[in-house]
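Researcher: I've been going back and forth with a colleague about how TRAP transporter small permease protein might be arranged in three dimensions. Neither of us has a model we trust, so I'd like an independent prediction. The organism is Aerophototrophica crusticola, in case that matters for your notes. Sequence below.
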Amino acid sequence: MNRLLFLIDEVSTWVGKAFSWCILLLTFVVCYEVVSRYVFGAPTSWAYDTSYILYGSLFMMCGAYLLSRNGHVRGDFLYRTWKPRTQAGIDLLLYVTCFVPAALTLIYSGYGFAKMSWIMNEHSSFTPDGPPIYPFKTLIPVAGALLLLQGIAEMARCMICLRTGAWPQRLHDVEELEQIMLQQHAIQDDADRFAHEHAETSGGLR
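Model: Here is an independent structure prediction for TRAP transporter small permease protein. You can compare it with whatever you and your colleague have in mind.
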């Protein structure tokens, strides 16, 4: 089960990290527009469309990645005081009653928006020759599907916690543990090397 959960985490992580490059492109576009508009007095016709497409893509496609990292905002001042089983029970209830219907709605409605956009060959109306936005709208149901997939993994974690009384590991927990182990091995290697050198030096002095 953990292997399957880690696989879903890896999919969300790969997608999130791939789309995180949008923030670098967005920074470049905004800086270019500011300099072009206020220094050279020549505003671009494409910066606005590019900005909201990049930001929207980043926002939608990194949602599952953030969920896999357990990074979404919650009332931690209450949540952290509960026992793991209580946390898991509340989480599972909210996933079933709120999260899953929202993700299914996003998939269903997003598919309709994307389909109509492709049929219309829809372009942005903010500029005279705006870019096509049907690829952007296609990301809506894709983001919903990724969220639903990661949500299923989170519900499985809730059920495991309800059964065992402890939260199962997440992918980033495993990654962090591996880093700690590597650091410990490096420290031990340095200590062994120092001890060996010290022993050789002491033997030479005798």
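Researcher: What would you highlight for our discussion?
Model: I'd start with this: The mean pLDDT is 86. After that, consider the following. The chain has eight helices and no strands.
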